[in-house]
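Budget justification, computational time. The allocation requested in the original proposal was used primarily to generate structure tokens for proteins on the priority list. As evidence of use, we reproduce two of the resulting records. The first is shown immediately below.
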Amino acid sequence: MRHLVATGIVKFSIEAESPRDAIAELKARIDRRRHEHHNPDIGMSLVEALDAGTLDFMVLDENQRPICGEFDGRFYSRVDDELVRHFYRNMPNTSDFGGVRHLDND
């Protein structure tokens, strides 16, 4: 199943069994990015934010409404308005929260 995972910088479409697995897969892809010379989908700023522990993840439904997420390293199976505000408050001002990056299976 495909899941839409937002980092606050960009949204990624990821194939995974569950939303939690989609977050784990995106974190693994970001971690692997550090060893790649160039990756058009995952920038080094995501690697740096993951390393610093400041990268949050929100999984969105097909209408792009939040359904769950990981904030400050803790997984939430449901997100309330407070967590959504936290997510958007910590988003960089340069984010357009625009296009979706489709990550294929490795």
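The second record produced under the same allocation is shown here.
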Amino acid sequence: MAYSDYGAYVFRNGERRRDKEDVALFASDEETFGMDSSEIGSGSRIWVNLLHLEKTGKDPSWENHIYHGIMGDGNIRVACYKQGLPDICELTEDGIHRIEYKTKKEGEDYFKFRYEYDDILFEYKGYHFRFESGELYIAEMTEPDGTQWRCEYNYSYGARFEE
């Protein structure tokens, strides 16, 4: 399936963050676009990000991958892509690391099918996470200071389909 068949909306404290839609995990707008990208259309952001990766010689591995939605501005971020479980990533002095989290509860698997799972709730370093599957995939993160993030994503949904 093509990347452009999917999309996301990202919100911080209820306000839309277009600059967190269709971007790389830790790339800044200034680094990639030379400006605030919130007014640049989603499809354009995808291609500019891909061109930036090529220009800078960065490998399009998961650290540099273009995700549909990114939650967080600090060293811990959540990356949402297609219909899968979100990745929780932490930037440290040693690089970017994926944070493993439980996909089982009391001996049962959270997954019913490949992209269907029961609500997943957990905490890491004072951050609280909730992931939900269904007709709409929802990822939520509450930072230790109370900042609330929400990403809604799925097939034929989100910023990519406003254009």
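A brief technical remark on that second record: The mean pLDDT is 79.
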